[in-house]
């Protein structure tokens, strides 16, 4: 089941070679609030908190915790 | 971005005088002189952050300060250095189950003990610890389409040392609308708990309940990422990651209550987790710029599973709303639900043999967490300052009928936990 | 004079997401005026103003006309001509660039344009023909004593290398007198922006890849200032696999070899950026050495 989900998501995105924008349509995407890592420190704090208090890790970035919190 | 062109390597170079000033004077005389300075890359970008985490009922409190410095060396390379200090105080559940009587526990160090009153979930307050972490991350645009990122990390607290390195490559496709990336990380952790590594399943009162002074754990992480621009307003990210952890993964401070048929604990033994864990996750994130307002909606879903029997779903969403004069608010909602690990138990029955692997740590149990928060940002002295207040509720689920006998009658074996988190950032 | 006749406008005005776009063709280039945070009526009058000024400069300084100061200077009569204030400034700048570039930037090299026209040209001009023109080239031979200019017989000057950037800066100056809002002037890749847009964003500029026309190679965020590109993306000859750009060396009569295909420079205003870019390209393989010494932001491709 998991593998079907994985395969489906990869295939649906690779079929996306027709998707996208021309360089002069990147105005909105260039804005800071549209960046994936808009505030890396905030992501770091959250990841650390949830890694310490829950049983899962990773997703957006590496899964490692690197501390004795869990 | 400065693009190096493929000129045959020059055997000679020439020195030139700087004519910019002369030219500037002459050209400004042609038309209106320009007053403002051209914006330049500042030398170092600084991000300073503070986190205060406080649980209710005198449980864990954490204070974390972080400083992150990024320097754009040139148009292709940047380097980041980050330092974090965190201080942990308060008490955390030790894994023993609540009882209708007072319970006394020895501290892990062996020096002293603490008592839990009737009906309370036993909490160990030995967690006063300070941790320091340093990391560095380097990024380089190898060519027009290839980006490399690599870094190292070190974290030290009283009884724990973590060292890791990471490396990743990313390539752009489809006129930079698609980015595929592959990253790996390796970590080597050493744990040296006070009192030594406990003997799993052995009673805490047993004088021979320690194995060695320290143990280690190694983690290998692989991350496959795909980022795709969908249209002018929409960006999506899909990640798959797999992680292999081998080594000591038990929490040396967590114990189990061994209870009799009447629900009274007559012994406490140390927990034990497997030496091997394979974790996997699928992560999907979308950022959508709502037009014409310019508000940004950021929604992500993560599906996680491992070979300890834990599966979880996480939905995280943020909504950025720009206000006038460069202020903004950003509400935040997060939902998390987790299935328990195969070897998760609330307590052990004294009539049953001690299992090979067992943990009563609620963090590996069945739980749902809810986070609701609000972030407010505004410019101070021309730089962005923001503050974020969040409420984090954990609801532990379980079989209430396990609260058996006189020993546990009427007790909530799965207490909720709430915490307040305050984060603050200043970037300049 | 431009007739204020709305039924036969020389420019178009379109509303884009977040800004007004005025477009017209002047100096054989697609020209754009991007106006932030103005209403349609103001956008129209500003575009009309920009068009009028750009057209005025084209008519006054184009070497393809026979009724302007350039035509008079190039008529070959070897007479002393008094030029006006605006022309003085431009000739002074050309003179300065001639000196600062050790004679590589030379407005008298325009006469080579007869041999190197780059329109479907498939072979190099005859070496003898090139040599024959060289005696007519060399700004040092002109007699310039502002406001008096005398060109020797056979010398032709061409302000094409300065004209477009100058038009950008002049139009920008006029627009700034009419509005406090942010705007961007783009005449065929020579650009000036006066300030950040009202939502605090920079203008996003995509620079065309000279090797893949229509595709952009790099994105520049321009908050304020001038941006100019010099290069051979549109005009070049390819003979035997060797690419000859349209930047000609006035001393040899041949295109500059060995340099980058395109140089983009950022400076306080468009003319300065354009001069730095052109002089850089004139240095051939030393283009980057030159740019580094100028302490300016630049991009090569």
Descriptive tags:
heterotrimer; A: 70 residues; mainly alpha; B: 428 residues; mainly beta; Porin; 4% helix
What would you call the structural class of chain C?
A: alpha+beta
**Gyration radius over CA of chain C:** 20 Å
- Tell me the Rg of chain B in angstroms: 27 Å
Biggest beta-sheet profile of chain C: 8 strands, antiparallel
The averaged pLDDT of chain C comes out at 84
Give a written overview of the molecule:
The complex is a heterotrimer of chains A (70), B (428) and C (301). Chain A has 70 residues and is mostly helical. Chain A has a domain at 33-57. Chain A has helices at 2-14, 40-53. Chain A is flat and about 45 Å long. Chain B is mostly beta strands and 428 residues long. Chain B has a single domain, classed as Beta Barrel (Porin), CATH 2.40.160. The longest helix of chain B has 11 residues, at 20-30. Among the domains of chain C are: 1-63 and 164-201, no CATH class; 69-116 and 123-160, T-fold (Orthogonal Bundle), CATH 1.10.3980.10. In chain C, helix 1 (40-61) packs antiparallel against helix 5 (160-178), helix 5 (160-178) runs antiparallel to helix 6 (270-282) and helix 6 packs antiparallel against helix 7. Chain C is α+β, with helices and mostly antiparallel strands and 301 residues long. In chain C, the strands form 4 sheets. In chain C, strands 1-2-3-7-8-11-14-15 form an 8-stranded antiparallel beta sheet. Residues 1-7 of chain C have low confidence and may be disordered. Chain C contains 7 helices and 15 strands. Classes of the chains: A mainly alpha (70), B mainly beta (428), C alpha+beta (301). At the A-B interface, helix 1 and helix 2 of A face strand 1, strand 2, strand 8, strand 9 and strand 10 of B.
Give a quick rundown of the structure:
The complex is a heterotrimer of chains A (70), B (428) and C (301). Chain B has 428 residues and is mainly β. Chain B is built from two helices and 23 strands.
Topology overview:
The complex is a heterotrimer of chains A (70), B (428) and C (301).
Chain A: H1 2-14, H2 40-53
Chain B: H1 20-30, E1 44-55, E2 61-72, E3 77-89, E4 92-93, E5 103-106, E6 113-116, E7 123-124, E8 129-141, E9 146-157, E10 160-173, E11 178-191, E12 215-231, E13 234-247, E14 255-259, E15 265-270, E16 276-290, E17 295-306, E18 311-322, E19 328-338, E20 348-349, E21 366-380, E22 383-397, H2 405-408, E23 417-427
Parallel strand pairs in B: 14-20
Antiparallel strand pairs in B: 1-2, 1-23, 2-3, 3-8, 4-7, 5-6, 8-9, 9-10, 10-11, 11-12, 12-13, 13-16, 14-15, 16-17, 17-18, 18-19, 19-21, 21-22, 22-23
Chain C: E1 12-16, E2 19-26, E3 29-36, H1 40-61, H2 69-73, E4 81-82, H3 85-100, H4 127-133, E5 143-145, E6 148-150, H5 160-178, E7 183-187, E8 190-193, E9 203-209, E10 212-222, E11 225-231, E12 236-239, E13 242-245, E14 262-267, H6 270-282, H7 287-294, E15 297-300
Antiparallel strand pairs in C: 1-2, 2-3, 3-7, 4-6, 5-6, 7-8, 8-11, 9-10, 11-14, 12-13, 14-15
Helix pairs in contact in C: 1-5, 5-6, 6-7
């Amino acid at each position: 089941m998991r593998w079907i989900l994985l395969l489906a998501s990869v295939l649906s995105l690779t079929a996306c070679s027709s998707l996208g924008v021309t360089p002069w349509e990147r105005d909105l995407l260039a804005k800071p609030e549209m960046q994936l890592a808009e505030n890396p420190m905030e992501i770091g704090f959250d990841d650390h908190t949830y890694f310490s208090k829950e049983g899962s890790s990773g997703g957006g970035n590496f899964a490692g915790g690197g501390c004795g919190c869990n | 971005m400065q693009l190096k062109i493929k000129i045959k390597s020059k055997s000679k170079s020439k020195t030139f005088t700087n004519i910019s000033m002369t030219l500037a004077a002459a050209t400004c005389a042609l038309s209106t002189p320009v007053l403002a300075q051209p914006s330049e890359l500042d030398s170092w970008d600084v991000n300073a952050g503070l986190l205060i985490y406080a649980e209710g009922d005198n449980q864990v409190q954490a204070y974390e300060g972080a400083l992150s410095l990024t320097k754009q060396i040139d148009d292709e390379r940047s380097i980041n250095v980050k330092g974090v200090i965190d201080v942990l105080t308060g008490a955390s559940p030790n894994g023993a189950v609540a009882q209708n009587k007072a319970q006394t526990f020895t501290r892990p160090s062996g020096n002293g003990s603490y008592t839990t009153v009737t009906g309370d979930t036993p909490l160990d307050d030995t967690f006063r610890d300070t941790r320091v972490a340093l990391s560095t991350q380097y990024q380089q645009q190898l060519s027009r389409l290839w980006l490399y990122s690599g870094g190292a990390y070190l974290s030290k607290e009283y009884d724990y040392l973590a060292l890791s390195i990471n490396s990743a490559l990313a390539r752009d496709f489809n006129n930079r609308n698609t980015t595929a990336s592959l990253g790996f990380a390796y970590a080597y952790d050493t744990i040296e708990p006070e009192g030594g590594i406990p003997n799993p399943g052995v009673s805490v009162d047993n004088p021979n309940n320690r194995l060695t002074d320290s143990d280690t754990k190694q983690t290998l992480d692989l991350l496959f990422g795909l980022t795709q621009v969908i249209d002018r307003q929409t960006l999506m990210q899909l990640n798959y990651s797999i992680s292999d952890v081998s080594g000591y993964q038990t929490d040396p401070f967590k114990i189990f209550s061994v209870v009799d048929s009447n629900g009274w604990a007559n012994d406490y033994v140390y927990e034990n987790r497997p030496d091997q864990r394979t974790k996997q996750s699928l992560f999907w994130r979308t950022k959508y710029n709502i037009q014409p307002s310019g508000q940004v909606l950021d929604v992500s879903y993560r599906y996680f599973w491992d070979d300890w029997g834990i599966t979880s779903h996480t939905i995280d969403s943020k909504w950025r709303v720009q206000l006038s004069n460069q202020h903004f608010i950003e509400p935040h909602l997060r939902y998390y639900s987790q299935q328990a690990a195969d070897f998760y138990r609330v307590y052990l029955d004294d009539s049953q043999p001690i299992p090979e692997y067992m943990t009563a740590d609620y963090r590996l149990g069945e739980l749902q967490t809810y986070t609701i928060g609000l972030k407010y940002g505004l410019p101070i002295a021309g730089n962005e300052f923001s503050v974020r207040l969040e409420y984090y509720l954990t609801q532990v689920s379980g079989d209430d009928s396990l609260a058996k006998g006189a020993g546990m009658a009427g007790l909530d074996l799965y207490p909720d936990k709430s915490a307040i988190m305050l984060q603050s950032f200043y970037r300049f | 004079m431009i007739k204020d006749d709305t039924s036969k406008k020389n420019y178009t005005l379109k509303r884009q997401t977040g800004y007004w776009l005025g477009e017209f063709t002047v100096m054989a280039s697609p020209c754009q005026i991007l106006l932030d945070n103005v209403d349609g009526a103001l956008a129209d009058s500003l575009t009309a103003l920009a068009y009028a000024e750009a057209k005025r400069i084209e008519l006054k300084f184009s070497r393809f006309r026979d009724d302007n100061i350039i035509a008079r200077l190039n008529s070959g009569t070897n007479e002393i001509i008094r030029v006006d204030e605006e022309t003085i400034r431009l000739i002074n700048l050309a003179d300065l660039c001639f000196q600062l570039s050790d004679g590589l930037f030379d407005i008298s090299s325009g006469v080579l344009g007869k041999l190197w026209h780059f329109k479907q040209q498939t072979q190099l001009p005859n070496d003898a023909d090139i040599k024959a023109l060289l005696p007519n080239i060399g700004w040092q031979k002109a007699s310039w004593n502002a406001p008096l200019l005398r060109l020797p017989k056979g010398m032709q000057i061409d302000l094409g290398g300065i004209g477009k950037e100058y038009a950008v800066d002049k139009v920008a100056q006029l627009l700034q007198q009419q509005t406090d809002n942010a705007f961007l002037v783009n005449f065929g890749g020579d650009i000036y922006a006066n300030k950040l847009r009202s939502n605090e964003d920079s203008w996003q500029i995509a620079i065309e890849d000279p090797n893949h026309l229509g595709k952009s190679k790099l994105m520049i965020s321009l908050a304020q200032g001038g941006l100019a590109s010099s290069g051979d993306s549109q005009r070049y000859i390819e003979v035997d696999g060797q690419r000859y750009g349209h930047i000609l060396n006035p001393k040899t009569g041949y295109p500059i070899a060995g340099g980058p295909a395109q140089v983009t420079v950022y400076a306080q205003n468009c003319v300065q950026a354009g001069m730095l870019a052109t002089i850089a390209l004139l240095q051939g393989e030393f283009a980057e050495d030159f740019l580094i010494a100028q302490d300016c932001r630049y991009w090569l491709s």
